[in-house]
């Protein structure tokens, strides 16, 4: 079993918080699509013997492509890989790109899951984040997706915004609940170097919200969504009826995946590879048959750290059996020594051979992670 991720590196405008690789210059779009086709051809044997269970088109903004362009990508993947007939096939979309006809075409092409970047249902928040859409587009896009036949809809929300009140966040969540989607990803705002928000923070134009309010927003998020029947299965992810993101779950389960397009990452247990984060360099290299990626072979220490990073924040947690079966005693001993204080303080629970974060532990997961990771003892 394996997954395929494709990075579509174009956005019509840039949001103030976002550091995903993207370009607002669409002049290279057609060349990008043919380079992508070549990359698919070049790498079709990397997942030989694997059934492809998930396909995820992310970005950037995949919904800026035409339905016919998206169809060609999916058809080409199906021609070159052994794609399961019920593969989870997700498109990341911005609300303002979603028309009824476009959504219908997506369904016909085989997309059975859509992840809509709502971010907020409040116009004030949307404006501050430099989003292109309005609250009415956000609501309208979800309704249209349902009408077009999508029954596995995910939405992205961001909280912890500067000045965001508890009431504003509650309002957002109530709106999300009313719309009755199957999956919600709610991310706490992160300030990334190079983004507009980061610069505003540095120059004092905005202020981070206090930690207590962040924690309160997180608790409200968990409480309201769980009350509505959502399962909190990863720090930022909530699903109804077991409709977890199969694609993301396979990252956490350390299954192989192939990442295609600029900045996309690939993984095969022993090696990580990442493509250049630059459309023009990507195009040139593919055209000239040159290398457009870097790679890193994972030592046992990296594999241990990777396992901790990818599993700690999920509800399945860290399996003691897995650690014992796969890693040298030195890593298992390190883990057991470092995890104990967090078990004692009630941030982590140990149940059925698994260590999982519990409420306040989820909120300080970065600090816990820092302790559990194995830092070189050279
Ligand atoms: C690849 S991005 C966006 C996909 C799509 N282009 C959109 O904007 O709707 C995936 C998600 O990451 C989240 N995200 C991006 N940057 C973030 C940040 N700095 N802090 C918190 N969440 C962020 C947003 O919720 C976003 O929808
Ligand atoms: S959040 Fe989405 S639309 Fe905004 S800049 Fe990032 S990738 Fe582009």
Helix content: 40-55%
Order of helices and strands: EHEHEHEHHEHEHHEEHEEEHEHEHHEEHH
Instruction: Count the beta strands.
Output: 15
Structural category is alpha/beta
Question: Major sheet, described briefly?
Answer: 9 strands, mixed
Mean pLDDT: 96
Ligand catalogue:
S-adenosylmethionine, iron/sulfur cluster
Span between termini: 36 Å
CATH homologous superfamily name of the largest domain?
Aldolase class I
Strand content: 15-25%
The low-confidence parts are none
Radius of gyration: 21 Å
CATH topology of the largest domain: TIM Barrel
Tell me what the structure shows.
With 378 residues, this protein is an alpha/beta fold. It folds into 2 domains: 2-250, Aldolase class I (TIM Barrel), CATH 3.20.20; 300-378, Arc Repressor Mutant, subunit A (Orthogonal Bundle). 42% of the residues lie in helices and 21% in strands. Strand 10 and strand 11 (271-275) form a beta hairpin. Helix 1 runs parallel beside helix 2, helix 2 (67-80) runs parallel beside helix 3 (100-109) and helix 6 packs parallel to helix 8 (211-227). The two termini are 36 Å apart. The mean pLDDT is 96. The chain binds S-adenosylmethionine and iron/sulfur cluster.
